[in-house]
Amino acid sequence: MSHGQLHQIVAALYLIVGWWFFAGNCLAAEPAAEYPPGKLGEVVRLGEEIVLRTNEHPLSKPYVGNALRCTSCHLEGGKHPQAGSFLQTAAAYPAWSPREKRVITLEDRVLNCFMRSQNGVRPPNGSQVAVAVTAYITWLSTGAEIQMNAEKPLGPNHVPPIDLAAHQPASSERGEIVYLQRCAECHGEDGGGDDDNPPLWGDRSYNDGAGLSRVEKLAPWLKVAMPLDDATLTEQEAIDVAAFVNSYARPHFNLKEHLPPLEKRGEYNAEK
C-alpha cells in the first residue's frame, strides 16, 4: 500500500467518525418527534398547552398575575434553540441555584417562575400544573445526557451571555430610539403589547424579581430573540433596549405575597 493510499484511508476514517459524532450530537439536540403513549402523553400535551396558554388555561390561570405566558420568554413553546430553550434542559437538574442558595429541582425552577416572570402565586408542588409542565420539558429533553449544573440552574442551550464591560454603558436614550424603530410595531409605543405580543412594562408585565428585570439578563435574550423571526439587534442595541424597557415601573417582588398558603406550599426553604 502506497503512502498516498494510506493517507486517503485515514482521511476517509476521519470523515466517517466526524459524521458519526456530528450526527449523534444533532440527534441528541433534536426534540422528541412523537408524544409518549397513554396517560404520560396526555400529561405532556397538557404541559405544552399550559406553556402556550399559561395566562388563559384554566389550570394555570389562577397562579398567573399578569398577561404573560411561558412562551412569551420561552419562544416556540420552549423549542427555540436559544431564546429560553427547553431543549435538553431537564438533564441539567437538580442544579445549584445561587438565588435560592439551595439545590433545586426542575419543578422548583418552573414553579418559582410563576412568582417572578408571571407575577403570580407559586403553584403547589405536585399539582397538575407542576407535573404537566415539568413532564413537557422533560419530554423535550429526551435523549439528552445527564449533566447536572453545579453552578446555576441553566440547561445546555441557555441564552449566551453578553459581556457588558466590552460595550458602551447601557443607554435608555439610545434604547428608546431602537425600540421605536424595531419593537414598537408589535409591543406598542406604551409597551402595553396586544393579544399576540406581551407587555414589556407596567402591571401586566414581569415583576422586578424576574431575571429579565436586569439588563445583564434581558439584553442577551433580546439579542437571540428579537425582533421576532428576525433577531438582528447588535449586542449594543440589545443592551440599550434592555435598559430602556427596564427603566419603566413594574410590580415589586415581595416573596411572601407570591407564596401559597402554608398548607398548599410544599417545600420552599429559600429565603428570597
TrEMBL record:
The keyword Oxidoreductase does not apply. One of its GO terms (molecular function) is heme binding. It comes from the Bacteria. Gene3D superfamilies: Cytochrome c-like domain. SUPFAM superfamilies: Cytochrome c. Keywords: Heme, Iron, Metal-binding. Residues 170-249 form the Cytochrome c domain. This is Probable cytochrome c.
